[in-house]
Amino acid sequence: MDGNSKIIIKPGQSNETLYLFKKAFEIMQLGVTVTDLQGEILYTNPAEADMHGYSVEELIGKDVRIFAPSELWRPLAFEQIKRVKRLKRESVNIRKDGSAFPAQLLSDVIRDADGRPIGIVTTCEDISERKLAEKMLQKVNDELEMRVKERTGELTKINEQLQQDITERKKAEEKIRVYQEQFRSLIVKLALLEEHERKRISEELHDNISQNLALSKIKIAAIKESVSSAGVAGDLGEIQKLIGEAIQFTRSLTFELSPPVLYKLGIEAAIEWLTDKTQEKYGLIIDFVSDGRLKNVNGKISILLYKTVRELLMNIVKHAQASKAKVAIGRDGNNIRIAVDDNGIGFDVEKLYGDSGKIETFGLFSINERINYLGGTIKIKSRPKQGTLVDLLVPMESNTNK
């Protein structure tokens, strides 16, 4: 065959068919490597070679362990290969110059028409940027939490000073009020910024990765229709299936980051979608109830309420040990009312409040400040072994331009 790639030609496969097969992989941005059962590289595409600093010619015939540190290499025995279907994992890959990078690998066994394993195909994605972004996001979260604690400490000190100096009480109370408004505004701005970033990342995933995968799947489908070899058609079908799964995973991640339903259909539809996904993912039975009377709710209010309900459901999943929950949303006069109820282990509500009389648990503290910013109220009812009810009441026309 001409070009920079090589591939094993089996009886019955035409050069034209294999040429189309090779071209399909050459346009992929993911690295693709095909090995025999002993790990010898039979084929690799330019993306894989470039990712590791090699030319395609250098890799053909090499042992696939050239990509992995010796301490991470765990070859599959032949008996394992006969049983395994698909293996997805994160690993550390080695470039030609000896440098390492984090990689997302997805391997699958290639079988002949009789179902016998004849090779292994592996896709490779360099996830260095994703790992760096995760590290940076964690750093930002840590710094934000530290700032929140520092600001909370400042407010506590101001309150103590007020008790000691009665003559300065009014001036100090006004100062505290300003600090509280600034702090509350900061929490809301951070929440909106986080959702904005989630939406941006979600749109990037949809507009770039999902679109490219969909195009690749269409092109492979077209190639599959044109091949005459059952073996090649089968292999293309396997690849088409892998790409389909990658598309489904990307779509799922896109919705988890920032569900389009929130921006297109509104808060009621978004929270119903959220309860369905939470139930599906964690096995918690959730009953969703809506009166259907919330239309054209302010965008910022919708974002903040959606984030609040998402956090409350995650608290139930992580801490409540509940088997059932209920989310009710509707209109109460000129207010939006949302009630989140569970049958979990409950807790002593009084222990939520410190000496200042304010909620000191950080997660609920943030929710409380967010609801107060919207001009609303939050009521928590709970007793040990009797579940928990969180009732939110927010004006329809909250001032979100502060």
One letter per element, helices H and strands E, the order comes to HEEHHHEEEHHHHHEHEEHEE
Q: What's the gyration radius in Å? A: 28 Å
Q: Which consecutive residue ranges, at least 5 long each, have pLDDT under 50?
A: 1-9
Q: Would you count the extended β strands for me? A: 10
Outline, from the CA principal axes?
A: elongated
Helical coverage, percent range: 40-55%
- Count of discrete alpha- or pi-helical segments spanning 4 or more residues: 11
How many angstroms does the end-to-end distance come to? Answer: 67 Å
- β-strand amount: 15-25%
Q: What is the strand arrangement across the widest sheet?
A: 2-1-5-4-3
Chain-averaged pLDDT:
78
In short:
With 402 residues, this protein is an alpha+beta fold.
Describe the protein's architecture and organization.
The protein has helices at 15-26, 46-52, 56-59, 78-83, 128-164, 169-226, 230-257, 260-264, 267-282, 299-320, 362-373; strands at 31-35, 41-44, 86-94, 100-111, 117-126, 285-290, 324-332, 335-342, 377-382, 388-395. The chain contains eleven helices and ten strands. With 402 residues, the chain is α+β, with helices and mostly antiparallel strands. The longest helix is centred in the middle third of the chain and has 58 residues, at 169-226. The strands form two sheets. A five-stranded antiparallel sheet has the order 2-1-5-4-3. The chain has a five-stranded mixed sheet with strand order 6-7-8-10-9, with helices on one face.
